[in-house]
Each structure stands twice: as C-alpha cells, then as structure tokens.
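Subject: design request, 290 residues
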C-alpha cells in the first residue's frame, strides 16, 4: 500500500485532506501488511455516501423477502416465487440482480432440500409439506447491489430437517459475532465451521461469501473453513456476505450438468443456508440485509 502526501485530497472522495481523513486508517493497514497480513484494496472500502445508497437497495431486498415469507406455502411453485420476486422488486424501482447474470435465466435462486445453491425456479417444481427451501434474493437499485437469503420450512418439517435449518442460522450468528474492525475473515470462517461440526454437520468448502455493494460480487472472497488469524483484515467500510452452506451429510457437492448452475449435495442429503450482508464499522459491525 502506498501512502499519500499528508495534504493531498483523500482517495475516498470526501474532499478532505488525507491527514484529516484516511491517513491514520491507511497507516494501520500498512503496518498490518508489513506484518504479513492480507489487507483490503481501497476499491472495496465503501464511503458513507455509498453505504447509504447500498442500504436503500437492502431495504428493497428485505421487503421482497418479507413478501415471499408471507405467501410461501405448500402448493406454491418455485416459478411462482420467481414471479413474486420480479414483480415486487420492479414495483419498488429495483432490478433483480440474478436475471441474466452470466446467463442465469431467472430473477431469484430457489434451492430445495438437497440443492445447495443456485436452484433455478420452475413452474413444475411444487413445494410440498416437509420441504425446506432457500430463497436467495439480490437487488440492484440505482446501481447499488444487495444480496441476502432466508430458509423456509414448508408446513410440518421433519425434526432433523428443522434442526439443520436452525443450526445453519446459528452458524451465521456465530460468524457475525466475529466481525470486528481489524479482525480477520478467517475468524468468521473458523467460528462457523466449528459450530457446524459440533452439531454433526459439514460446511461446503468451495463456495463462499463475497463483497457486494458496487458490484454483485466483489472482493473479498469469504471462505467458511479457515483457521483463526488468517484471510483478509476486516477494515471499517468493508461490506460482505456471510452465507455458509451447511450440509447434513458430507461436504462434497456437484453442479447440474444440464443447467450448469444448480449445486447439489453429493450424497443427496439436505443442505441449508442463510445469507446476510454485513458492514464492518469502527465499533463492530452492522447487518444491512437479512
């Protein structure tokens, strides 16, 4: 990291002199870099103005998920969910971020039972009593991105399935508790993996979270099977998702060869995932989207 001249305009665009804005912030990152740690690029540190715009996108994202929560039930198709998401997002002035992203054909991901992620909605996939489903909603609003998902239990769900859903949510909470300024992303992953393993579950190692806000997917990549004190330093202004995929069985997965998107558990056992967006602050963290 190169430090600027003290009286130069700050790189963040605040209009302040560097010494009055991010100089001490950069000096701290520089010291951590010299100690051998991975530090964030300036491009992924969000300004207060950007954070406020991202929060507007998050408000739409959560409203859409609230709508899904109010209407989802047995007999509904995942195609219905896709239409709800498109209509409710556009009604609020947003754009469904998945639609057309790298060729993805729908407005939302609906991952059912043994589908780990990236399930494609279809009118022929009807929700049944006892199913568990992840609904992953992502929104663009005025050029800013948000991304979060929730699990839904359809009717009376088997006790083992309900426990998986609950523990997956606890894993997110355990990871969130480790989001602290100047801490390490590896601490987040370690806490998540430890809690999943302690409950007899596994965490998918090859699919993780990501930075988000100015783009759909940004740095950093957030892995959930990491040792403490490793991975990128969490600096104030970073925004990323926490979204571990927790499997009832083994951690191995495969991608559907026909659609090229949907990820399944290798052993056909159920999987659960919750996703939140979190901002690292000077005091700790703020959950922006859940």
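Subject: RE: design request

Done. Sequence follows.
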């Amino acid at each position: 990291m190169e430090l600027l001249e003290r009286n130069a305009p700050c790189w963040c665009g605040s209009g302040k002199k560097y010494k009055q804005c991010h100089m001490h912030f950069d000096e701290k990152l520089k010291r951590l870099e010299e100690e051998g740690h991975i530090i964030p690029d300036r491009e992924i540190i969000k300004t207060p103005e950007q954070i406020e715009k991202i929060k507007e996108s998050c408000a739409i994202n959560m409203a859409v998920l609230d709508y899904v929560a109010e209407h989802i039930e047995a007999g509904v198709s995942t195609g219905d969910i896709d239409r709800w998401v498109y209509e409710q997002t556009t009604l609020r002035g947003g754009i469904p971020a998945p639609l057309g992203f790298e060729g993805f054909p729908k407005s939302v991901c609906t991952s059912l039972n043994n589908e780990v992620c990236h399930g494609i909605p279809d009118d022929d996939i009807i929700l049944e009593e006892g199913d568990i489903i992840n609904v992953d909603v992502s929104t663009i609003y005025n050029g800013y991105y948000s991304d979060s998902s929730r699990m839904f239990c359809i009717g009376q769900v088997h006790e083992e399935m309900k426990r998986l859903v609950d523990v997956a949510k606890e894993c997110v909470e355990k990871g969130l508790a480790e989001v602290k300024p100047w801490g390490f992303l590896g601490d987040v992953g370690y806490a998540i993996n430890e809690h999943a393993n302690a409950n007899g579950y596994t965490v998918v190692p090859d699919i993780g979270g990501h930075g988000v806000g100015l783009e759909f997917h940004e740095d950093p990549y957030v892995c959930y099977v990491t040792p403490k004190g490793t991975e990128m330093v969490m600096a104030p202004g970073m925004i990323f998702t926490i979204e571990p995929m927790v499997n009832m069985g083994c951690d191995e997965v495969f991608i559907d060869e026909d659609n090229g998107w949907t990820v399944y558990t290798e052993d056909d056992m159920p999987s659960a995932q919750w996703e939140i967006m979190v901002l690292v602050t000077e005091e700790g963290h703020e959950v922006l989207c859940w």
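The mean pLDDT is 97.
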